[in-house]
Amino acid sequence: xxxxxxxxxxxxxxxxxxxxxxxxxxxxxxxxxxxxxxxxxxxxxxxxxxxxxxxxxxxxxxxxxxxxxxxxxxxxxxxxxxxxxxxxxxxxxxxxxxxxxxxxxxxxxxxxxxxxxxxxxxxxxxxxxxxxxxxxxxxxxxxxxxxxxxxxxxxxxxxxxxxxxxxxxxxxxxxxxxxxxxxxxxxxxxxxxxxxxxxxxxxxxxxxxxxxxxxxxxxxxxxxxxxxxxxxxxxxxxxxxxxxxxxxxxxxxxxxxxxxxxxxxxxxxxxxxxxxxxxxxxxxxxxxxxxxxxxxxxxxxxxxxxxxxxxxxxxxxxxxxxxxxxxxxxxxxxxxxxxxxxxx
Length: 344
Description:
16-stranded antiparallel β-barrel, porin, Gram-neg_bact_OMP, Porin_dom_sf, membrane, transmembrane beta strand
């Protein structure tokens, strides 16, 4: 699909909003955030050592954000969101991008849908394997963090259009402009939410993350996610596979997670299992391949609507391979954490 076709619907949406004219606009801006710190004991990095140490860390990354909406009348609205990520343990910025998680502005129409422009989650991170399908919401030490295989979680220079919900179904189309040495990215999501059932699938193509890959070298990622709330238990799953890794386009990575949330007492028991498998991830041999298994068990204890104590117990295993596929090392470790989280 040529890039100009991706902007037809957003253009229609913009035209609909421009026809509103001058109206008595109502607007709101909210400030929100989180700090979530834990005392932890366990291996810091199994790729380097099995040795366990005690230390303080972010149980989930600190954040502060701003979100606003303006009513333009006749079912139209404008909105924006900015979200910064930081390390709560020392106050430093989490990575080189200041507005790491979100920096977008958008227009919405109740009949046509909405369009956002800026830096935002790619389809897999926005709808495919996001926290709603992981027992810990993607947060806390016991969570199974990265679930999108080798695809990028965030896209810059992006236009993302989403339809309104129709019978529980919604569709999204996203396109990110090319940058220096980075190819354009394209993707979509299809989402369903009805009663206790939520399902999603996404597909995206983008720049190969392998170091030194040319701007013409792309990868493809397909994901599925789902949950079903039975009341006494809520099972969840994600599945993601990235293909065409490496210059030969023969590499692959697959990530699967299974989990459940179980109401218990004043809080919730959470359990999550992740399996990661590389297959010639560098495109030429098994030298960069990893296989991992991670089991997380935890308890979420709310002290109020905004503050909670979160307990984590983790068992992690990691295998690495030589170029010919023979085992390079196999390491395992157990860790635990007690964390205090405050949302505002």
